[in-house]
């Protein structure tokens, strides 16, 4: 049977085998120069989930603005998926331990990511702690002809401008914003002007009020608190 769904979720215990280099501890899959363990070809793949891709300590050089990437999933990985997995419909990318600032220690760029999005009929997209993704990315998503469900978690670079772009996405019907603190009532109002969302989830977004969320979609779930489930989702739940 041809592979249609692939899930990878890193779970590391405190006694797992690690490699120490120069006093720093990491595992070999974080080496961006190693053989890319995430590259694969599958024409029938529809559902891809890469969750809790953890990172090892920052290596910055302030002189050149350089950031050592900490994952081996690179733009080349995305190009390979775009070329070889043309039926891909569901993408879930979740990172833990990443700084919210640029340059990103994630091993790929927004440019590479958008090549994948624009090459495949993506219906469902989940981005968790994706510090490479910003309002320009939202602008590109807005022209995606297949996108129905979008979930953004800890995407700090997405603002009200991004909401204004995504409000015009032709097929978007389900939107979830979790811990996106740079989206405000103004951005939610942009969504409300279109009146086509089936469901809207707002969880622990400090600048969005319940009053602003009401009426934006047929179904609205709003919480000003951070749930245990959300803490687990971002990799900060109790072990």
TrEMBL record:
Superkingdom of origin organism: Eukaryota
Assigned GO CC terms: SCF ubiquitin ligase complex
Residue ranges of coiled coil: none
Listed GO biological process terms: SCF-dependent proteasomal ubiquitin-dependent protein catabolic process
Official protein name in the record: Uncharacterized protein
Native source species: Triticum turgidum subsp. durum (Durum wheat)
């Amino acid at each position: 049977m041809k592979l249609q769904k692939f899930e990878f979720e890193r779970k590391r215990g405190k006694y797992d085998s690690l490699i120490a280099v120069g006093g720093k501890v990491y595992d070999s899959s974080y080496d961006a120069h190693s053989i890319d363990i995430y590259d694969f070809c599958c024409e029938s793949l529809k559902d891809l989930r890469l969750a809790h891709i953890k990172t090892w300590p920052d290596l910055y050089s302030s002189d050149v603005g350089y950031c050592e990437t900490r994952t081996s999933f690179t733009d080349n990985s995305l190009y390979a998926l775009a070329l070889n997995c043309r039926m891909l419909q569901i993408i879930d990318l979740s990172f833990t331990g990443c700084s919210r600032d640029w340059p990103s220690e994630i091993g790929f760029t927004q440019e590479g990511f958008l090549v994948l999005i624009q090459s495949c009929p993506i219906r469902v997209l989940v981005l968790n702690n994706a510090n490479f993704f910003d309002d320009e990315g939202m602008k590109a998503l807005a022209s995606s002809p297949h996108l129905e469900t979008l979930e953004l978690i800890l995407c700090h670079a997405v603002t009200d401008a991004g909401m204004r772009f995504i409000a015009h996405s032709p097929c978007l019907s389900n939107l979830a914003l979790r811990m996106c603190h740079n989206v405000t009532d103004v951005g939610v109002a942009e969504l409300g002007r279109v009146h086509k969302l089936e469901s809207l989830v707002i969880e622990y977004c400090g600048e969005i009020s319940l009053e602003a969320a009401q009426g934006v979609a047929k179904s609205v779930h709003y919480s000003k608190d951070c749930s245990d489930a959300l803490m687990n989702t971002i990799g900060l739940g109790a072990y």
